[in-house]
Structure formats: C-alpha cells, structure tokens
Write a structure and sequence with these properties.
7-stranded antiparallel sheet; disordered C terminus; 179 residues
Length: 179
C-alpha cells in the first residue's frame, strides 16, 4: 500500500505517481493560461500539496532568473509538502529548432529527480500584434533536480538558510491553485 499522500509509487520510476502527474498537469494548465491571457513570458510560480491541501506562491515582481532561483530556495525549505511543481518560461531546442517554452518541474518528496515537461510556443503576428501560439502538446523534457528536500533520509546536505538576494516572492494575491 502506498504511503498516504504519496500516491502510487514505483521504485524504478520515482516521482511518477498519478497525483504527481495531476499536479504537473494543473501547473502546466495554469502556466499556459497565463501565457495566453497576458501575451508575455510566464512569471515563475510554485504549487505545493501537503497535509493542509494545495497552495501556491508567485512572485510580486522581478527578473525571471530571480523568480526561478527564489522558487527553488522556497521549495528547498519546505519540510511538509508531499509534492511540488514549479513553472517558468524559457527556451527548448528540439529537432535542431530553438523555441520558447513553458516548463513544469514536478517532484514527489523522496524521489531522486523531478520530472520536467515543456510546452513549446512561438509568437505569431496577428492583426492585434504578436500572440503566443502553442506548438503541439506538452512533451517530456527529461529529469530535473529534486525540488523538495528528502526528509526521509539521513543526508548531510542542508538547504540554504537565507533566500537569494532580492527575493521577489510574496504570498499570493488572488492566486489559488484549483483543488
């Protein structure tokens, strides 16, 4: 029987349970929605699932690199969530072509890696200006570093205690991930 709150687990493929997949899909949907409604690169945000349910945080402002770094730091301090996802905007090269993409890293506590998914898009000229157009469906983009610390193992690596400089994160104002 799987541990409560962990979903199904398969030691050969850690972090790929149904609950993690669901969280990853929700995060991707929110990232794509943001992209299509704002017509600008997606601001990085994180979503967590734990004993208190689902919650999220997003940046108040700041450069994308700082948003992503602070989101990683924020998750490295989390000792209670079962699962987490982080969303950001970046670039991916597939079949020799570099395109913009919305990325989602999703992680289940204790898994050796996060899953990484990318939704490619390009800015297309329209009568109303440039608008993002999705290219295909989200695609797996490999494994990624774990987002949450492993609190089940006795490890010697402590997460950094101080946030990166100019941490632009705040509690969400109106940002409530779907339950």
């Amino acid at each position: 029987m799987a541990e409560m709150g962990r979903g199904s687990s398969d030691d050969s493929t850690p972090g790929t349970g149904e609950q993690l997949l669901s969280l990853s899909q929700i995060a991707m949907q929110l990232g794509i929605k943001s992209l299509l409604e704002v017509f600008a690169p997606v601001q990085s945000f994180v979503i967590t699932e734990g004993p208190e349910g689902r919650g999220g945080k997003r940046p108040a402002d700041g450069p994308l690199e700082q948003q992503v770094a602070f989101g990683r730091w924020l998750l490295s301090q989390d000792t209670t969530s079962f699962r987490a996802a982080q969303v950001w905007d970046g670039y991916i090269t597939m079949d020799g072509e570099r395109t913009d993409a919305v990325f989602v890293a999703a992680h289940e506590r204790g898994a050796r890696a996060s899953t990484l998914t990318a939704q490619r898009y390009r800015l297309a000229r329209t009568i109303r200006g440039k608008r993002p157009r999705l290219i295909g469906d989200p695609v797996p983009a490999g494994d990624y570093e774990p987002l949450l610390p492993d609190t089940t193992a006795d490890n010697d690596t402590d997460p950094p205690q101080q946030p990166p400089p100019a941490a632009p994160w705040s509690d969400p104002s109106g940002f409530v991930p779907p339950q």
